[in-house]
Structure formats: C-alpha cells, structure tokens
Amino acid sequence: MSWLEDVLRALENEELQRGLRTAVKNMRTIRLETFSRFPYLTEELADYIRKTKEKVLKDLEKYVNQTLKSIEKTGAHAYLAKDGDEARKIVGEIVGDGRKIIVKSKSMVTEEIRLRQYLEERGHEVWETDLGELLIQLAKEKPMHPVGPALHMTRARCARVLKSIDPEITEDMSAEELTYRVRRFLREKFIKADVGISGANAIAADSGAVFIVTNEGNARHVTNLPPVSITVTGIEKIMPTTQDAFLQCIVQSVYLGSFPPAYISMISGPSRTGDIEARFVTGVHGPKDVHVVLIDNGRMQAAKHEYLWEQLLCVRCGYCLVECPPWNLSGNLWGGPAYGGPMGVGWTAITEGINVASSLATLCLGCGACKEVCTMKIDMPNIIRNLKKGIGH
Amino acid sequence: MPLPVEDVINMVVANVVRRGTPISMSDDALNGWARELNLPKYGDTVLYTSQLYQMVPYARASVDMLEDLEKSTIGRILVGLGSRLASVYDVSKLTVRVSKEDISAQHDLLKGIARILNNIGISFGYMYDDELYSGVLLYDLGRDEDFRRHAERVSKLFKERGVKRIIAVDPHTTYILREVYPKFVDGFDVEVRNYLEILAEKSPEPKKKISETVTIHDPCYYARYLKIIDQPRNLLVNAGVEIKEPDRTKSLTFCCGGPIESIFPRISKEIASLRVDQLGSVCKNAVVMCPFCFENLSRADSGKVQLRDIAYYLSQSYGGVSI
Fold this sequence. Notes:
The complex is a heterodimer of chains A (about 400) and B (about 325).
Chain A: H1 2-12, H2 14-37, H3 43-58, H4 60-73, E1 77-81, H5 84-95, E2 101-104, H6 108-112, H7 115-121, E3 125-128, H8 131-139, H9 155-162, H10 175-192, E4 195-198, E5 202-204, E6 210-214, H11 218-224, E7 228-234, E8 238-239, H12 242-256, E9 263-267, E10 272-273, E11 281-282, E12 289-295, H13 299-302, H14 319-323, H15 325-330, H16 341-352, H17 354-361, H18 369-373, H19 380-387
Parallel strand pairs in A: 1-12, 2-3, 2-4, 4-7, 5-8, 7-12
Antiparallel strand pairs in A: 5-6, 6-9, 10-11
Helix pairs in contact in A: 3-12, 16-17, 16-19
Chain B: H1 5-19, H2 27-36, E1 45-48, H3 52-71, H4 74-85, H5 91-95, H6 100-119, H7 136-140, H8 144-160, E2 165-168, H9 171-184, E3 191-194, H10 195-202, E4 213-216, H11 220-225, H12 230-238, E5 242-244, H13 265-280, E6 285-288, H14 291-300, E7 306-309, H15 310-319
Parallel strand pairs in B: 1-2, 2-3, 4-5, 4-6, 6-7
C-alpha cells in the first residue's frame, strides 16, 4: 500500500496542508456564489444531463460508432483505442519520428494513459501549457485536483519550480509576473510546435464536434496554432447531440463554481476555406490535420458492470474532493495513479482494475459527502463499499 | 509505519463473526444501566442500543492501542498475529483497559434517554444480555455474506421474543435496521424508530430551560442518510439552547473520521482534528449525537471544545435530571 505511506507523509507536509485548506475554502465559496447567481443552471439541468448520459451508457457501442462516423465527416480522423497501449501507439504514429515539439493542454485521460511520459521517452519535447499542469510537469509530481492541479504549491514554490524555464525568475516575484513569464516562454513553444494535444470535456455523437472548457485560453492555442491537432478523450464523454454536449460543459462549470468559464471551444474538423474560386483548402490559420482518439480502457466493460457503471456518469468537475474528509488531508495522493479522492477510487477501478481500487477503498469513511455534492449524484459511497469486498479475507 | 490494513480488517471481522461484536464487554458494562432503572425485559417495544454507547470507552482504549502499534514496527507483527488469534482469543479484551468513570458516563447518557422516553409516556423493554450488536461494521466493510448471517440472527431473536418495534438511540443502528436489514433479511418487519424522532414528534414541554449556546455536529448517518436534521435542533431550541451552526453543517456536515479509526488511527484522528477546529471556531460547546462521533472527536480534542452528547442536554431539560 504505497499510497498509504504517501498519505501519511502528506500529513507532515505543511505546505500541502496549507494549500489544501486554502483551495477547499475558495472552492466552497465560489460554488455557493455561482449557485446563487445561476440557480436555473443547477438541479434541473444536472438531472437532465444525468438522464442523457445514462441513455448513452446503456447503448455505448452504438454511440461510439456514431461518433466515429461523425468525426470522419468533419474531415478529421477518428480512432478507437481499446486501452492505453493502443492509444499511445496511435498518438505516437501520428506524431511520427524525430524530435517534435508538442504542446499539450490539461487532460486527465492523458494522465490516465501516461501520454506525456510516453512521448518524452520517444524523444519528443513535450510542454504542458496549463500553468498548473506545467508546474506539475516541472516538479515531476501528481496533479492534486483535476481542475486545479497545483493547488498545493505556494507562490514561492511555484517560482522555484519555474526557474528551470526562466533562470531570471526569483522567489519574490508576484503571481502576475510569474504568469507573464510563463506566457512569454510558452508563446514561443506554441508557435514552433509541430503537434498540439488536448483532451475534451464533451463530444457530440451527432456532429463529431469536440468541446473544450478552459479559463487560461491555452487549449485554444494548442488546438489552433500547430499544424497537427490531436484530441484524446474517454468514450464516456460522448453526448447524443451537439446541444447536449454544450449543456454538459455548462453544468460541469457551474458545479465546480467557475462559471462562466473564460472559453468554451467547439471544434469540428480541420481549419478550412473556400474563398479562392470556391476551391476547398484546409489548414488556413488552424491545423490541417485533426485527429480524435476515443479511449475505451475499461469503460465499455464498466458500462455493463453492476455498480461501476455509475462512475462513468462523472463529469470530472472534482467537487466531490472538496467535501471529502480524507481528500482534505491527502489531496490526490489518495485515489489512484491518475485520479484522486472518491471519484478517483471509482475511476481507478474502471481504468486500472478492481484489485487496485480495493486497497484504496479502505480509506473511505462512507460518510456520503461526495454523493451529496456530486453534480451527477453518483452513489460513490456505494461503489466504494462494494470495492471493499476485495480486501482482506 | 502504517498498520497492515488487511490484517486489521480481518481481525475486526473475525471478532464480529465469532463473538457477535467487535469488542466483548462484561454484562455489567453492557446492561448495568438498565438494571438500575429496572427496565422490563422485553416487550412489544424495546430500546435497542446495539452496544454502541457502551462500546465507547472500550473502543477508545482499543484505538489508543492500535495507534501505539501504528507508531511501532512491532505493531505489524502483533496485529498480524491478532487476525489469526482472533478465532481463539478475543484480542481486544485482552489488551484493553477501561476506567469505571468512562463506563458510567456512557451509562448516564443511556439512562437519560430512557428516562425522558418514560417521562413522555413511552413504555418499552430492554433485551439485557440477549441484546446483540447490529453488525453494521460487517456491512460497512463490504462483508455482505457475514452481515446477512448476522442480521438473520438478530432478526430471528426479535421474532422469537415478540419484538415488534425498536427504539434506536444512535444513527448507525437506526440506519442499518431501517434501511439495510429489509434488503438482507426476508420478511423483516420490525418497525424502527429513533428516539430523537419520537421526542420531536411528541414535542414535550421542557421541565427546565437551558440558557446555553452551542454549536452542533450532525452525524453523517442522521443528516445525509436518514434526514434527521430538524428534530434535534427543534428539541434543543425548545429547551432554550441557542445553536450556532458551523460552516459545514446539516447535509453538508463533515465526518468525524470515526469509521476508519481502527484501520487508520492516525488519519482518523487528523480528520477529527479538522472537525474539532471547525466546531471550535464557532463555539466552545459542541453537541454531538452519535457515540462514535463523541469518541473520535474527543480523541482529537485538546480542550478546544466541550463535546457533549445531545442526551446530556435533553436529560437536563426534558428529563429534569442533570447528568
């Protein structure tokens, strides 16, 4: 149980404990504010999204096939990878050989399949462009939250970590100054990049459109500036229609509290024009080659599982973590190799196997706070109680 | 060094399966309070403790021991032995030391609850040495088959002794009997009430007003699983108590950490510490409603808050008896 030793060590890590407390406090405040400002975007809409997602999960194979066809129709290339290995291979082949510069936006699925590490091992230069995720990359740590990966780092720590990309950075620099320097550094990478890799928050089965929610705007550069764009996403992100996919993004942002997000991008195929003699030309200002890789990695099987299926409804807003007592102390050090907290235990069971998740389940109090605040009202305490069956005897 | 989790879980489960309870206690420790009150043995309606209030001092001593083991290397070996020995020996009984004062403090709470119920005209019996633990731990740990066997045993006893109605006095027992037993035991038709529900429904006039200000810690099972949220508040407010709600309250209450106290004593205590800080920042008097919330929060408390079970206040005001 190496995770347990990590958690026990985390209790002694004052910086982490302080960071978690501040983050939890802020996230609770902004969610309450958002709920009172946009009450019409809460319960009823969330309930509609849950029912819609249930419909997709009951017929997942059909929706996957429809989505693949729709993606192809946009002029993009569609792939279905049965596991992490296959996904890495597909992305590796699209990227090709030689030392390529790759810019990435934050994506939990790419954490799940360890895509960045794989591409780095193949000799490519890979840059996370979400500020928090870049900090995690440079510090060689694990994201502490799906939306706020570096919430545990103090400003001084961020400065120390960022020194490796800009030696002039000093510990007394303000957050504004640090952000500006990261912007300056990454700007050059965006321009030079051969490939951009992003995740997705939703994908529409009817149109093949990919939705990406971001506040920094980095995902716009990632999907727009390099000549090749690859989007990697889990099949549970499929929504039946373009409208549903958009609404899902709205609900997810509202329930995390960061609403309205600065950007929601809807991307359908390569950049194109017909302005010169009505001749169809691709790759105008955006990428010429667009690829969408859908990842199964246990999801298809989980959709039919007696209790794990419900975790697939998760929109990964990460709010369950905020209310989870063990997570308040451990951050994502508890929950699995990629995901963390109560949602993480379920996702780990799906993507890494029930055996791995059973050990993690033992830390759960069964207190029910995660379910109480879950956007999709997923009965995580029930999932985790069932996972405990695999331990001991 | 962390405890060997599987061994600890196996030890806990083995104790419940073999002895019917996570911790064996003497007849006096379990039933002395009821004998003092001369509660009748059995009846249509019984007050059912599931041994939880009585278990508190023993659980504390046992968790203290586990916490010491967690800090030492030898702990791994001892607990490992424990899981195998649990089938022959009751490890917890051998190693636990408990003070008489702690036992009688818990007894006072049960006596207080029984007296208030009597005062408002509710008659009930008690099962004395026949009373069995509910088996809730087996369910929480996902040992469904062991739990089913245990629940069937408990239900059979209710049936044989003609018990039709149960008054439970804690959240875990209320939940497991009301919501889970019917799913595991065919034809389980015992009516399960909670004493706070009964009191709130009867809404008796307080015999004495209490002018105290308190904050309140909702147990997860009352607030989230059973929606028992308003009842304790109404009772306290009618008694004259002013309630200052903490930031995390009602259905968003923050768990005391108790459920993992024997598996991860250190982490459990840290969670309790977070909760004690949250409560203490609102008011130095804090009302708890579950014996295990009391137990775990008091492990972390270093005088920041005065933790008291709600029965302490209800006894004073509705029972007219200070404890």
